[in-house]
Sequence to fold (71 residues):
Amino acid sequence: MSTDEHVQHCPACGRDQRFEQPPCEDGHGADCPERACVACGHAVFVGLVPAPVPVTATAVVPAGTNARTAA
Fold:
């Protein structure tokens, strides 16, 4: 968890709790809008949600299938 924290109402806990920014797995870094309740882990978004980070996809061809005929 980062030091970026604030207090807000946690719907899961039913009271005001401290929220921190967890490590961002989407590549947003410090701009990640996700925060997690330090008491229960309930996640919320704060501010605007940034555009998704593009992910390069690769085709998965089932075993026993010719890659040229699978498309």
In short: The longest helix spans residues 67-70.
